Amino acid sequence: MSVSTDDIKKLREMSGAGMMDCKKALADTGGDIEKAAEQLRKKGLVKAAKRMDRETAVGRIVSYIHGGGSIGVLLQLNCETDFVAKNEEFEALGRDLCMQIAAANPLALLPEELDAETVEKEKAIHREQLEKEGKKGDVIEKILPGKLNKFYSEVCLLKQPWIKDPKVSIEDLIKQYISKFGENITVGRFARYEVS
Question: Fewer Cβ atoms within 10 A, N terminus or C terminus of the chain?
Answer without folding.
Answer: C
